[in-house]
Amino acid sequence: MERIIVQKSLGLNGNIRVDGSKNSILPILAATLLSEEECIIHDIPNLQDVRVMCKLLEVLGAKVERLGKNTLKISAENITTCEAPYELISKMRASFLVMGPLLTRCQNAKIYMPGGCAIGSRPIDLHLKGFRYLGTEIKSENGYVHAVTKKLVGNDIYLDFPSVGATENIMMAATLAEGETILENAAEEPEIVDLANFINSMGGNIIGAGTKTIRIKGVKKLHKTEHTVIPDRIEAGTYMVAAAATGGDVTIENVVSSHLQPVIAKLREAGAQVLEYGDKLRVISDGKINPVDIKTLPYPGFPTDMQAQFMSMLSIAIGTSIIHETIFENRFMHANELSRMGVDVKVEGSSAILKGSSKLSGAKVKATDLRAGAALIIAGLLADGETEITEVFHIKRGYDNIIEKLQNIGANIRYEK
Ligand code: UD1
């Protein structure tokens, strides 16, 4: 069983380059199904989730060709099946994003219902509400969601919550629908903007992505394109927290600092210096962390995907911090693991109270999800002795080369089989 072994490593120092965004490339890969012509995409991170999405595209009939280390060419000239099987959907919830594109290409999509996962029940009702409003009939059959339409027709759709996945799925389905769709209370994440830019570069007509109201004018057909994925703001944020917590001086390259404003603001409150230069950010810290309260919110609020990493850092703050999780109902699994390492944390409903001033000591811990795994690595860098992290596959879903990148800035960390 693969494990990550971390030893205390204070004062991380050096440069790290961030990869293309996982949460951008997954919907963009799904959107390649919208066009019969080829899409060339650059800066694709080499991640397990990306491999699962590529496999799914191939199962559906697309050709996926590697043109370079981080470049893929995808041609979905022929879709050979509109059924997405259990084996792939159960591996990754984001595979459900092929439903919108399949409905546009085949008027029919049968996709295994994505299950619950470690961070809460994560329903798909808002995706389905959008598809219904666009003229789709939806049935549930033997664990599959079966959606059928005679013709997708644009409509006004209000999302009860600004779900990232629902916004993306509906945007994709509306791209080739007849007439205009107005999506209200849409998610505003940078990854939504990247997806809209990708679709528009193929001839789509999407206005307002990145705001609460997105207008999608249906077009007849999309053509070929070439696109570069935006940098991963969560990968960047993770290394920024590692730098701040360990009292380091680390420059993060390939970032869009405007995407990281809530993270930068909270790191500054915690006492770190964050300097912004063009596509680089430098984090300098003396390792003395102030307590900070955090409330996760849809973008541009503080990202839920950074909550666990901040918990590790705030465990050594001098004073009490409160973390309030409002996006997912059960996203404090890492609190149990961190308490094995000596972190004084108590979870009460959707809040975690961190007493701070914890003396962390290495322990055997389990990555319970992707960001929880990253949080354990950060805690391991702060803890006396050795930390052994299992269930490493979660971490590989979202961080390419995390071990090498951290070693390069002085971390004592390695894989062990
Ligand atoms: C995406 C990100 C994930 C991030 C999350 C929130 C990808 C591949 N994943 O996930 O990393 O943590 O956004 O920023 O981009 N909800 C419903 N009904 C629905 C859909 C969602 O009630 O139909 C609820 C969910 O249960 C959750 C909340 O909305 O409580 C947010 O979910 P959503 O924004 O959809 O997250 P994902 O797109 O799954």
Explain what this protein looks like in three dimensions.
- The model has no long low-confidence stretch (mean pLDDT 95).
- A four-stranded mixed sheet has the order 22-23-1-24. It has a four-stranded mixed sheet with strand order 2-15-17-16.
- Helix 1 packs parallel to helix 2 (48-59), helix 4 (99-106) runs parallel beside helix 6 (164-175) and helix 8 (233-245) runs parallel beside helix 10 (307-314).
- The protein has 417 residues and is α/β, with parallel strands linked by helices.
- It folds into two domains: 3-18 and 231-416, Enolpyruvate transferase domain (UDP-n-acetylglucosamine1-carboxyvinyl-transferase, Chain), CATH 3.65.10.10; 22-228, UDP-n-acetylglucosamine1-carboxyvinyl-transferase, Chain (Alpha-beta prism).
- It is elongated.
- The longest helix is centred in the middle third of the chain and has 13 residues, at 233-245.
- It is built from 14 helices and 24 strands.
Question: What is this structure, in a nutshell?
Answer:
With 417 residues, the protein is of the alpha/beta class. 31% of the residues lie in helices and 25% in strands.
